[in-house]
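Why does residue order matter? Because the sequence determines the fold. Keep that principle in mind as you read this record.
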Amino acid sequence: MTAMNQVVGIIQTGEAASILNLSRGRVRQLAEEGELATAGKLPGKLGPYLFDAEVVRALARCRAEEQRKKLAETEAHLQGEGAAS
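Structure:
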């Protein structure tokens, strides 16, 4: 990443994938489906997408919160089953 990218907070597909704990392919898919807003794309068929780093971090926080809620629901369900035994 260049110093200019760091100043404006623009990251490429690979870094977005790392932040989101997803594959590059899944990040590209999210971008193509409109699930993850892009800040542009570098030229060429295989040119990486560009993302606003803060948008990616916000999505990562949302995904983490959703996972925490699902885990809590699963644990509560399992504890309820154990109490019914």
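The domain at 3-84 is CATH 1.10.1660 (Multidrug-efflux Transporter Regulator; Chain: A; Domain 2).
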